[in-house]
Design goal:
By secondary structure, the protein is mainly α. It has helices at about 1-5, 10, 15-50, 65-80, 90-110.
């Protein structure tokens, strides 16, 4: 220790000292990152049963599929289409206006003004 102190500033300017100092800084970062990852792993391993309950066994009755099918079919048999007695406007003008606006806002300007 006395020999290192005797060298003083010359030792601090040496490339070997800088390599050792940088390596210890990197290893300290690596060690702290490894400890952080290990702590997160241990915390998730210990706390995961507290948030996720185990799956309960399912018991199905014999009539359950029939009841589900009846629940799906009943609204279809009883319903009527909304506004079925009124004629709907033709869709082609709306599609044409949308395509012209889309091309005018996005396709044509990108074809004319190319980016870098």
């Amino acid at each position: 220790a006395q020999a290192i102190l005797a060298l003083g500033p010359a030792l601090l300017r040496s490339p070997l000292f800088h390599r050792v100092a940088m390596a210890s800084g990197r290893s300290l970062r690596a060690l702290s990152a490894a400890l952080l990852i290990a702590a997160a792993f241990v915390a998730s391993w210990l706390l995961s049963p507290a948030f996720v309950p185990p799956a309960a066994p399912r018991v199905t009755e014999a009539g359950a599929p029939i009841a589900a099918a009846a629940g799906l079919v009943a609204p279809l048999l009883l319903s009527q289409p909304a506004l079925a007695d009124q004629p709907s406007p033709p869709g082609l003008p709306y599609v044409a206006v949308f395509l012209v606006l889309f091309a005018g806002l996005f396709i044509i300007p990108n074809a004319i003004f190319k980016g870098k």
